[in-house]
Structure formats: C-alpha cells, structure tokens
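Late entry, evening session. Most of the bench is empty. Finally got around to the prediction I had been postponing all week. Sequence below, unchanged from the version circulated by S.P.
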Amino acid sequence: MPASRTASRVKDSLELATQDWFGSAQFDRPEDHWPRRWATAYLDFAAGEKRSWLRQMGHRFFPVVGWAERGDGRADGHGNSVPRFHLTWGTGPGVVAPFERRVREHAAAGRIRLCFRHRVDALGTDAGAVTGVRGALPEPSDVARGVASSRVEVGESSTPPRPSW
C-alpha cells in the first residue's frame, strides 16, 4: 500500500479495495464481464506497481489521504470503507506534465505524430496493436484555447500503418 496510507495508519489491502469497488459496481450481469476484468486489472496495478510507476514518471503526492466517496458503512455497500483519495503536487498540470513530456519525446523521435485539430473516429489495428487512425479534419480556427471553435468538417484525415509499428 502507498506510504501516505501507511504513515496515516489507514489499513487497506487489495482485498478490501476489491470489496469496496465491487460493492459499488454491483457486477451482476453478463455484460459486466469486461468492466469486471478492467476493474480487477486496475486494482492489481493500483495495489502493486502504480505508485512507483507514477513516481518514476515524475508525480509526487501530497502526504495526506482524503476520503472521497465515503462508503455507507456496509461491507458490501456503496463507496470506500477507508480513505483512498490522494492529491498530487501541482494538481491538474502536475498530473498531465509527465505524460505530455513522454508523448513529446516520442513525437521528437518519430514514433508519434501529433495532429492538432484532428478528430479521431476509428483506430486501425494489426495483431492487437494500434497502427493508424482515421477521422475528420475540422476547418481551421484561431480562437483561444478553451473557447468553442467550429466543428465544420473540411476533409478527412488518416495515418496509414507504418512499417516500424
């Protein structure tokens, strides 16, 4: 478990986190197969390598654990039975910056092509790997970031599979 929870004496475990999530999600239908698998994989990641992976990416956490989504007090009820909410130093930009840095490194190395003002409608795959994208090209706009811009389509955009992929 993360050091911040250990230091604050929060008793947490993979089993307890699974119980809390599954109690809220109520995975009880056939179409819940993949959501249940995703939740299980995420919980395994969160209880294992997530914190060290985020730290290697440059994330730092504020050393206080909050309690968002407090549970209803039942073992199989809705919400968390222990505090699990962590704040990162730098909040939004602090969360995005390490990922943006990695994407820009891949773009500089030619492994990713950044296409601003392009909409992706479909992913091309080969042997389970994404090899290209297809989508619409909105008309050019010079409005400020955060201001609504035109969604009028002036063409299509696609990237074919690359041999190195």
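Two things to note before I forget:
The longest strand covers residues 129-138.
Strands lie at 61-66, 85-88, 119-126, 129-138, 153-159.
Will write this up properly tomorrow.
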